Amino acid sequence: MPILEVDSLTVDIDGEAGRRRILDDVSISLEAGEPMGLVGESGSGKSMTLRSILGMLPPGASVVGGEIRFDGRNILTSGPGGRFDQRIRGTGISMVFQEPAIALNPVMKVGRQITDAIAERRGLSKKQAHDLAVELMDSVGITDPDRRARHYPFQLSGGMRQRVMIAAALAQEPRVLLCDEPTTALDVTIQAQVLDLFRTMHQDEGLGLLYVTHDLAVVAQLCSSISVMKDGQIVEHGVLQEVFDDPQEEYTRRLLTATPRIDEGVDDVGLAEETR
Amino acid sequence: MSEPTTSPTATGATGPGGKPPRTRGGTASRATPTARFTLPLPAFLRRHNLQLWIGAVILGAMVLLLAIGPLFVTDDPNRQDLLNTFAPSSIAHPLGTDQLGRDVLSRFLHGGRVDLIVAVVAVIVPFILGTILGSLAGYFGRWVDIVIMRLADIVSAFPFYVLVIVLVFVMGNGMGSIFVAISAVSWVAYARIVRGEVLVLREQEFISACRASGLSTPRILTRHIIPNTVSQGVIYAMSDIVLNIGVVVTLSYFGMGIVPPTADWGQMMNDGQQYMGTGNYGLILWPGFAVVIVSFALALIGDGLTNTLKPKR
């Protein structure tokens, strides 16, 4: 049974121009230990899908249909009073954000931020929380974690901050990790290190990974399956190699050809044509 | 124009034909002529928060004076000596005596203590109240925001002194009334400042990250939202102390603040102004001067803190 199932999720948003459908019949099925890439252009609904899964839709947006099942339970209605089950956040599903520079509290030491949620839930003492933070920071490859835990975000480099974010997301041992373009803001070498970290995580810990990006190269390196989104709909889904080798949809084909490859010439008839 | 001012000094110091090669070598080695005349001050300012230091030193000196002064000036500030009124400064009375023969220095020191304590304490309650209400309004929005901010509008629609005077009038004068009156009015400024900060913070990604990791709303508010807004509140608190000193002194001046015969700068000024015509300027000068100095120091500290307390990214 899949650990996370998004079943024909439909989300509307009330804007100035009236009601608009931003997610239309989106279905995703993620097995434990499976890394899935969710790709698509800006505004295609990738981030909205992630936000819906965590029950963090922006004001005005609401789920009008479908279910989100975590471990077989519909989290949209299993919370107190039939509302979204917020207990799932952190312990069941966690999220790594795009921009580590702004996703950390600037006035709190990173060690405390990593264990803040877990300390609250389990009532850890300061000492216990610090030790746990050091352990987690060590596990995501931060050198000298004991000293780093006492630093503020501005004292850390971008790659270091993203590792801190990942450590914080993993602190409560979630079973699914949502990643919202976590390597976009990093330079290429750091990006490779962070991807390595993700790879070992889903392999060793059996973590389900839903990886949102518009960078197909990253998906190719990390994921085993891929879903392609366009205009709030999933237009194609399949095993990575099959989709890459033989895309069924015209949109996927153009998306693939729009990615420059080092072994081929640049074919710029793809997506660029449409925007012109 | 700076060229002629510096070179005469240089030649003047070395004397005619003293060590001209060194002077010439010095000017020639500098590539840009403008760089030669940059004052060392801006660099020093950048490294040290000069405003904060100057303000802290002035305020610290005044607080020290008020704290330990009464240990040396042992005259009872309220002891009258009607045979020795308007005495000029002497060994016994360094600042002379007032219209009832009371020692002006002793009254100045004791009065300052009262004013500063009231002004500082009267900042704490509005600060806490305003921060809590402002962050609630900003974070939850909707009806919470509407209720709190309309309440703030109502309070601030009244002219400040009219409202304070009415409250003091109703409750009778004294320190307690001053605290209540100031607290009831000045939380509004803190609430507005904090609400604005929270509106910005609420949309920040690290707050989303907190929610995504399952942190409870009270914890997000107390550990992530409020610590990020507190610096703005503290900066405003510095100018608020100044305002409070003004309020206390003004109320006392009008006879609605500190109850006589307890000494206080406002009353001293009120008493003193009646005798300005007879040439006794000292009575109004010293407390007036002290109010200006303390306000100036607090303003400098507020400015200095603005530069220091900005959260770094």
Automatic annotation (TrEMBL), chain A:
Coiled coil: none annotated. The keyword Membrane applies. Residues 4-256 form the ABC transporter domain. The keyword Aminoacyl-tRNA synthetase does not apply. It is a peripheral membrane protein. It is found in: Cell membrane. CDD domains: ABC_NikE_OppD_transporters. InterPro entries: AAA+_ATPase (IPR003593), ABC_Ni/Peptide_Import (IPR050388), ABC_transporter-like_ATP-bd (IPR003439), ABC_transporter-like_CS (IPR017871), P-loop_NTPase (IPR027417). Keywords: ATP-binding, Cell membrane, Membrane, Nucleotide-binding, Transport. It comes from the Bacteria. Belongs to the ABC transporter superfamily. This is ABC transporter domain-containing protein. It comes from Brevibacterium permense. The lineage of its organism: Bacteria, Bacillati, Actinomycetota, Actinomycetes, Micrococcales.
UniProtKB/TrEMBL annotation, chain B:
It holds the Pfam family BPD_transp_1. Gene3D superfamilies: MetI-like (1.10.3720.10). Residues 1-32 are annotated as: Disordered. Keywords: Cell membrane, Membrane, Transmembrane, Transmembrane helix, Transport. It comes from Brevibacterium permense. It is found in: Cell membrane. Residues 1-13 have a biased composition (Low complexity). Residues 112-302 form the ABC transmembrane type-1 domain. InterPro entries: BP-dependent_transpt_permease (IPR050366), MetI-like (IPR000515), MetI-like_sf (IPR035906). SUPFAM superfamilies: MetI-like. It is a multi-pass membrane protein. Its main location: membrane. It comes from the Bacteria. This is ABC transporter permease. The chain crosses the membrane at residues 52-73, 116-139, 151-170, 176-194, 241-263, 283-305. Belongs to the binding-protein-dependent transport system permease family.
